[in-house]
Amino acid sequence: MEPADTFARVPDGHDRLWTPHRMAYIDGESKPTDDRPGPGCPFCAAPERSDEDGLVVFRGTSAYVVLNLYPYNPGHLLVCPYRHVPDLTAMSAAERGELTELTATAMATLTSCKHPDGFNLGMNAGPVAGAGVAAHAHQHVVPRWSGDANFLPIIARTKAVPELLADTRAELSRAWGSGDGAR
């Protein structure tokens, strides 16, 4: 029998896409340690930063739009109320209304900039439903293109995102402000 390290040197015909930055997400490095509002919550902290540093695309009255730090696809946005509430039932009517309007504008802006073939929209309410940050509600707006899901997420648990977050934020923020994405 050969030593285990021998197998590491034998070519297996596979290319490697190294994504070490994803370990922060996998290890939970950026996840809040408790459910309290404040600087430990990424959705409370983002609007306290500059738009560029917080990846904020648009600021409304009771809700804002931010890029997902770990996007499924380029342009994956989150629409969040400023107030630290766990789900739609805890939001005021004004918060729910603005969240819906910002979601529609996000779809229109992404359509004008990125030309997706469709969207996934969703809010995971509670940890058992898949919410990574369950204490602060956030609506996902994920642009989708025909054929955008390939073998990488399924086989390698890796997602190739071909655009830097700063570039995506700048493009969407410019389009949002110009009216190109407005309904």
In CATH, the architecture is 2-Layer Sandwich
Helix and strand pattern? HHHHEEEHEEHH
Please work out how many helical segments DSSP would assign: 7
The CATH C-level name is Alpha Beta
Q: Sheet bearing the most strands, described?
A: 5 strands, antiparallel
How are the strands of the largest sheet arranged?
1-2-3-5-4
User: Using DSSP, what is the number of strands?
Assistant: 5
Q: Which bin fits the share of residues in helices?
A: 25-40%
Q: Please mark out the parts with pLDDT under 50 across 5 or more consecutive residues, or reply none.
A: none
**Helices and strands: which structural class?**
alpha+beta
CATH superfamily: HIT-like
> In what range is the share of β-strand residues?
5-15%
How many domain regions?
Answer: 1
Shape: globular
The chain-level mean pLDDT equals 82
CATH topology call: HIT family, subunit A
**Cα gyration radius (Å):** 19 Å
Cα separation of the termini: 66 Å
